[in-house]
């Protein structure tokens, strides 16, 4: 038996930010990153918040937020006695705010205050998920936290906020969306509802990510990618993820590669592993994951006369997309040292096997499978 809950009210489309005009007499704790303050984007909030509200801005968030910043935030949150919390920024700001919220509830016995997530990247889907990823920078480890208490009450998806995202971050975060949707689609926990969400997200990424990358001011493409990110988040909140994220959490922290970029580097190799794909034109039996990937190929209008061809078409389409987005396609291009990779491969593999995301992967990996994937990723 599956249960699907939809807790988050979603305000979307141009003008969605006007939702902020409706609150009165609130003490609002705002979590964001320094870019939002320096660039003046934070003023888009202040222009809409009514003067009867009082605000506190916590703007120390850095990418892949470390536990120390979460602790600082919990202290500030306790001192301010907020009625409401807003996280505005990329996945890092939203994830850090989620962790602050549950730790404040647990440690300070704070009430369960309304939490509003306003993403400014189209990537993590964190505005609709029970997940938060926090880093331990000393140990170079990322911890995925999972709790329904972290689900935002509201998500505001206004494409105006994403226009300023630089092209390379548009590419990285967009590939995170694609990875979420594909992993949810082949997850062992996938069902008809998560499939529908994932399928739509995948179609939107292939149609609109190149446009959003090419012209950041293309508001239609930005809006579609913002929606795709949210759809993919909803899909994996139901079906969870897989080995791609399992490896990305560990390897991304070790090699200091942005989350979406790490996922992108892994994606062709993890698909081939899951589908047990071997090159050549043999007609050997295909596994269930290969059949699922071929369904996606068909829905994208790619050649998929049989599962094997469907998998090949999907992998080719992903590599083509990476080229369009001028993304690196190997660890070598990301300046990862070959000797360091060799030294770390086994421990990365062990970490990936323990990561919660790996549990729902369609094919059960062992250490040597993951080491093999990492080696292939180095060469491309
Ligand atoms: N909670 C989840 O379900 C989930 C899922 C996937 C990834 N994550 C985590 O989310 C984090 C990554 O989030 P992200 O990819 O959104 O990146 P991010 O939040 O780390 O932001 C990346 C960079 O983009 C900048 N930025 C953000 N919005 C901008 C804008 N509108 N204009 C210009 N620059 C902008 C930020 O200042 C930052 O420098 C990682 O820690 C990852 O592990 C969480
Ligand atoms: Fe992700």
TrEMBL record:
The lineage of its organism: Bacteria, Bacillati, Bacillota, Bacilli, Bacillales. SUPFAM superfamilies: Dehydroquinate synthase-like. Belongs to the iron-containing alcohol dehydrogenase family. Keywords: Oxidoreductase. GO terms for molecular function: alcohol dehydrogenase (NAD+) activity; metal ion binding. The keyword Cytoplasm does not apply. This is Iron-containing alcohol dehydrogenase. Residues 8-159 form the Alcohol dehydrogenase iron-type/glycerol dehydrogenase GldA domain. The keyword Hydrolase does not apply. PROSITE patterns: ADH_IRON_1. Residues 170-377 form the Fe-containing alcohol dehydrogenase-like C-terminal domain. Pfam families: ADH_Fe_C, Fe-ADH.
């Amino acid at each position: 038996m599956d249960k699907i809950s939809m807790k988050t009210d979603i305000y979307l489309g141009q003008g969605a930010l006007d939702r902020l005009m409706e609150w009165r007499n609130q003490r609002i704790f705002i979590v964001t990153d320094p870019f939002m303050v320096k660039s003046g984007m934070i003023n888009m909030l202040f222009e809409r918040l009514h003067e009867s509200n009082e605000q506190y801005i916590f703007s120390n968030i850095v990418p892949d937020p470390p536990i120390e910043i979460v602790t600082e935030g919990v202290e500030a949150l306790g001192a301010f006695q907020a009625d409401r919390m807003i996280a505005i920024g990329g996945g890092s700001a939203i994830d850090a705010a989620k962790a602050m919220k549950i730790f404040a509830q647990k440690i300070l016995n704070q009430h369960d205050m309304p939490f509003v997530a306003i993403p400014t990247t189209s990537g993590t889907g964190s505005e609709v998920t029970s997940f938060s990823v926090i880093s331990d920078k000393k140990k170079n480890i990322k911890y995925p936290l999972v709790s329904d208490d972290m689900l935002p009450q509201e998500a505001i998806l206004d494409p105006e906020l994403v226009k300023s995202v630089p092209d390379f971050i548009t590419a990285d975060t967009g590939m995170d969306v694609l990875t979420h949707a594909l992993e949810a689609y082949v997850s062992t926990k996938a069902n008809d509802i998560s499939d529908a969400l994932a399928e739509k997200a995948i179609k939107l990424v292939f149609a609109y990510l190149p446009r959003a990358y090419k012209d950041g001011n293309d508001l239609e493409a930005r809006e579609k990618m913002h929606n795709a990110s949210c759809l993919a988040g909803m899909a994996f909140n139901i079906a969870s993820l897989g080995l791609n994220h399992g490896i990305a959490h560990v390897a991304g922290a070790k090699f200091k590669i942005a989350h979406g970029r790490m996922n992108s580097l892994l994606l062709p190799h993890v698909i081939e592993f899951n589908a047990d794909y071997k090159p050549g034109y043999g007609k050997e039996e295909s596994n269930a994951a290969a059949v699922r990937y071929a369904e996606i190929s068909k829905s994208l209008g790619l050649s998929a006369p049989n599962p094997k061809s469907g998998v090949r078409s999907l992998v080719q389409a992903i590599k083509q997309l990476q080229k369009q987005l001028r993304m690196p396609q190997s660890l070598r291009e990301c300046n990862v040292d070959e000797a360091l990779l060799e030294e770390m491969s086994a421990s990365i593999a062990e970490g990936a096997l323990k990561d919660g995301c790996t549990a729902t992967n369609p094919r059960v990996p062992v250490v040597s499978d993951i080491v093999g994937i990492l080696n292939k990723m180095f060469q491309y």
